[in-house]
Amino acid sequence: xxxxxxxxxxxxxxxxxEEEYRGLEFELPDSDIQRRLDDLRQRQPAKGIYGGNGxxxxxxxxxxxxxxxxxxxxYVLKPGGRAFVVIGNSILQGLVIPTDRYFGQIAxxxxxxxVRIDIPRATRVGNSIIQSDVRVTKAxxxxxxxEAIVELRKP
Length: 155
What we know:
5 helices, 5 strands, three-stranded antiparallel sheet, 19% strand
């Protein structure tokens, strides 16, 4: 991988799946994010790099990048300024990952106010993949992918 690929927001799956462990680079005390990543990490160990540990590494790298992104938002917004971030949830190894909620918690931990999280569209393209063998463990029928708008304000 090239240096740009390694520095890419969200990190390429191929980079982190083979790592023994990639964890969060920050603490989020009033959140279940770490517990959810631990749960994900334990799923499908027989699948090796395609099992839960590879996906947990990927999710942890993504949330570390979300933290850096939120730091940038906090830095550039003037007091009273707002940011609207469109973010989709994810379902990994059959486990729902509410990225919108976690991103809001990350932003709040940096002093930004989460004004609201709206879900203008309850399903998004790619919903059919969550029932395919590509995700290894199929999602529950009630689980679906969605896009949310996280509205942040700098006090």
